[in-house]
Design goal:
Elements (H helix, E strand, L loop, with lengths): L13 H22 L8 H31 L4 H18 L1 H8 L2 H10 L4 H9 L7 H10 L4 H14 L2 E3 L2 E3 L1 H6 L6 H17 L1 H22 L6 H7 L3 H13 L2 H14 L21 H15 L1 H12 L3 E2 L11 E3 L8 E3 L6 H19 L12 H4 L1 H17 L2 H18 L1 H14 L7 H16 L17 H5 L5 H19 L5 H10 L6 H6 L10 H17 L3
Parallel strand pairs: 3-5
Antiparallel strand pairs: 1-2, 4-5
């Protein structure tokens, strides 16, 4: 198996890419000439041909930008290449800009006629109508589109390039962000402490730049929200996630009421490790053996877990391994973290990892493959319906982690289980409680209209972080700067609660799966993933008899976490 992804599946070379860019520009120009200011004249049958043509052009733009971004993600020195592709694609996007705006401007009878009769596109078109009050005029949208590469998007790129260039001195080596963070789960406390100090120093050194970037992201979002008539900085996220503010507030309230589970777990962990106090750099200290896992072993475990659940899960994951969809290891210039990029339906998803042989990397692999499976299955619906709201986008990824956890739970000896349980509970805490901390932190940051100093952002970060750990973990002064490497704050404001949403949702679904009360669960689950973003979350989850608008719904997932923590407490 090869270590790097193969982008030739998208374009054989840059000449082929350039041809595609020129062709797309010409075709999008022709689309604009043929249909702009004419949509009201079309019958349903003719409008269907127009929307299919529009969709094909979006796929072409999507494929070009997938190639450009994946090149940049694997080597952030290629920022100028990404910028060139973005600028050239802007011409095509500008030509297509009129379509959604003009559709929303049609008289109500005509727009409803199209939305109701074009069954394949009904959900997409109805969503456009639902959100049209936040659209601006075509001239204004054109200005925003043309300025987008020099606004938040530019600061996002600067953030990525800056973090990728970051080199942290550690024991006669210069480590990347991923490599230094992997030391946080080292068995040696001195190594963890030293690594945390080194990373903190690097963040503090870059604080002026990272603070400025965050302020610019915050300021632009406030401006855009004001122009589009949103009440606050998070409202557009809830709208795109197709959920209500009440649902999000209920999730946050339920999670914060159960912070005691975090405290209970870490106090037990402190006792097991034999420490007087647990410091911030001890949060991911391994219990039991420090497991090192080669990628080949992680691959085997994931495939076995997926095969036990569903042939569809196994087949897509196996194809990802065998057909060069994955970029596996950290390397010079590669961006940090991990993701699965959905690409376009005429190709396949791509996965970026930074695999460092830790057990946590096994679960990251399962997580990203879960995304890939969801993305590949959603190719079954039209491209305009493929993108899932963030709240359900994390469903398959977190579910995939649970499948792997369950397999390991059965196969490990009792003395190894305590380490597995601790690692899994910490992952759940990171996906649930930590993401809610991130969300309440963002709420406080975006509530300030003025530019914030590093000191003020640090203070807010520490206030919110301490709420989660209570008195179970001591957060050192240097932990105050650790907000500054979180990419979601920059790339996708208010994204983070989607992880928490998905975690509790998946725990409810997984509990149903394990209970065997739903005989056709696997079939229903694959069907839900295959529907992509063609139905709203309430309807998708309603397939299993759950109501996500019920304020008590989140308690189902919390009960599953309580079970896990109780099982952990009894293992020693």
């Amino acid at each position: 198996m090869k270590e790097n992804w193969n982008l030739k599946h998208l374009f054989e070379n840059e000449n082929e890419l350039e041809k595609a860019i020129q062709e797309t520009q010409k075709q999008s120009e022709a689309f604009k000439q043929n249909y702009k200011n004419k949509l009201e004249m079309f019958s349903c049958q003719d409008f269907e041909k127009v929307i299919k043509e529009y969709e094909k052009l979006l796929i072409k733009v999507g494929k070009i930008m997938t190639y450009a971004y994946l090149n940049f993600a694997s080597d952030t020195s290629k920022g100028s290449f990404l910028a060139k592709c973005e600028n050239e694609c802007k011409q095509s996007e500008e030509n297509l800009l009129f379509f959604e705006l003009e559709f929303c401007e049609l008289n109500e009878v005509k727009s409803k006629e199209f939305a109701n009769n074009l069954k394949e596109y009904s959900f997409y078109l109805n969503n456009l109508l639902k959100n049209k009050k936040h659209k601006l005029s075509q001239k204004e949208e054109r200005i925003i589109l043309n300025l987008s590469n020099t606004g938040a998007q530019a600061f996002s790129r600067l953030f990525d390039e800056s973090l990728a260039r970051l080199k942290i001195p550690f024991e006669n080596e210069l480590l990347s962000e991923e490599e230094i963070l992997s030391k946080m789960s080292n068995a040696d406390r001195k190594v963890r402490k030293k690594a945390a100090k080194a990373f903190s120093k690097a963040l503090e050194k870059n604080a002026p730049l990272l603070t400025y970037i965050y302020n610019m992201i915050k300021t632009e979002r406030a401006s855009i929200c004001k122009l589009r008539g949103f009440k606050n900085a998070e409202e557009p996220r809830h709208l795109s996630n197709q959920i209500s503010q009440n649902s999000v507030d209920a999730l946050i309230n339920c999670t914060e009421k159960n912070f005691d589970l975090v405290s209970k777990f870490y106090k037990k962990k402190k006792q097991i490790l034999g420490f007087k106090t647990l410091k911030d750099y001890d949060r991911y200290a391994p219990i039991g053996k420090d497991v090192s896992m080669e990628f080949s072993e992680a691959k085997s475990i994931v495939l076995k877990a997926f095969k036990n659940f569903s042939p569809a899960f196994f087949n897509i994951a196996n194809e990802a391994f065998e057909k060069e969809w994955i970029d596996i290891y950290p390397k010079e210039g590669k961006r940090g973290g991990a993701f699965s990029h959905s690409a376009t339906p005429d190709t396949h998803p791509y996965i970026l990892l930074n695999y460092t042989k830790k057990r946590r990397d096994l679960f990251t692999l399962a997580h990203e493959l879960g995304h890939t499976i969801h993305q590949k299955l959603s190719y079954n619906v039209s491209y305009l319906n493929q993108d899932t709201p963030l709240t359900t986008a994390e469903t398959a990824s977190v579910f995939a982690e649970m499948l792997v956890f369950d397999l390991l739970k059965k196969e490990l000896k009792k003395d190894e289980l305590i380490g597995l349980y601790a690692a899994k509970i910490e992952d759940i805490f990171a996906t649930l409680y930590r993401q809610i901390n991130f969300t309440t932190f963002e709420r406080k940051i975006h509530a300030h209209t003025e530019e914030l100093s590093t000191k003020k952002i640090n203070e807010i970060w520490m206030q919110e972080s301490k709420k989660m750990f209570q008195d179970s973990v001591i957060l050192g002064k240097r932990y105050a700067s650790w907000w500054s490497y979180i990419p979601h704050f920059i790339h996708s404001p208010f994204y983070c609660y989607a992880y928490a949403y998905a975690q509790l949702l998946v725990l409810a679904l997984y509990g149903l799966y394990k209970s065997k009360k739903c005989e056709n669960f696997t079939e229903l689950y694959i069907k839900m993933l295959s529907l992509g973003g063609s139905k709203d979350p309430k309807e998708l989850i309603g397939m299993f008899g759950f109501d996500i608008e019920d304020k008590y719904f989140w308690d189902i997932g919390i009960k599953e976490i309580k079970k896990l923590v109780d099982e952990f407490m009894e293992l020693e």
